């Protein structure tokens, strides 16, 4: 049973809420918390493009349909001409940032990334780039510490970092679905070092329909604990695994399960200022509904998205449709930047 206490949700209570709570009651409480944190009735979104600078990756995660190996006929590293075209198109569409991510390429060291960032910054655009696994890989390959790597990348133009590669921060599960990826302590360690250097980041969670509530709560607990120490996360993005075209396979997450997890995230992560909904995986209608289950951010226009699309998610949407969905849910739409500064109301 949900209470009206203004106290932090414990791990045990969180597990119970996932297992036993009434969905609409859970959503109502999450919506109340959203309203208390964002009383002006605004829902934000960002216009950006997800540029994958390479699809070569040594991780070979079982849930990923995007990666390729060196030598595969469709393996690539983007050239600067293609990169420039993608950035210019983003700016023409009023985009303010590039979400830059790629695989763990075995041959690309720190100098490649410094050159890449300096080139991108010549276009005067925010670079929200890499992820803890990428940072750890670059550092290891280049013989640098995590801090040295982050400093070099920041000096070259890296503005902020997305929370990719988190999946579930439960090491038994990581060993099962992505044994070649860094463990949860290393993921959290990269984020903490970034926060110490003054860089803002986001945090994510990829969950599956069959994931036990205890594992979901373990992930959230680790994120909440780090946020208590650093305050460096601007937002949390829970998104459901897309099983098509992957080795892992399995059932798709139901809309009901998605809304239940999203609402719990809003209630449990009391130190997280923003919760982003995932219309990319669930569709705009469920994304709209999620705004009444604790979400206050509609995510990104996603001018380009490759990784989730390779696993079967095919939803696309325009700025006009984003604004329409936000308005239909009873909110006013605002374009934002990565740090949640509002650029304009629509």
Overall description:
The protein has 346 residues and is of the alpha/beta class. The chain has one domain (11-345): TIM Barrel. The chain is 42% helix and 14% strand. The protein contains 13 helices and nine strands. It has a four-stranded mixed beta sheet. It has a three-stranded parallel beta sheet with strand order 2-3-4, covered by helices on one side. It is globular. The termini are far apart. Residues 1-5 and 305-314 have low confidence and may be disordered.
Largest sheet data: 4 strands, mixed
Residue ranges: pLDDT <50 for 5 or more in a row? 1-5, 305-314
Figure out the total of helices: 13
Strands of the widest sheet, in order across it, are 7-1-8-9
Query: What is the average of the pLDDT values?
Result: 90
Order of secondary-structure elements: HHEEHEHEHHHHEHEHHHEHEE
CATH architecture field: Alpha-Beta Barrel
Secondary structure layout plus pairing:
Blueprint (H helix, E strand, L loop, with lengths): L10 H10 L2 H15 L4 E5 L1 E5 L27 H13 L4 E5 L8 H12 L4 E4 L2 H11 L3 H11 L14 H7 L6 H13 L4 E7 L5 H18 L2 E8 L14 H14 L10 H4 L1 H7 L6 E4 L18 H10 L3 E5 L5 E4 L1
Parallel strand pairs: 1-7, 1-8, 2-3, 3-4, 5-6
Antiparallel strand pairs: 8-9
List keywords for this structure.
346 residues; alpha/beta; 3-stranded parallel sheet; 13 helices; disordered N terminus
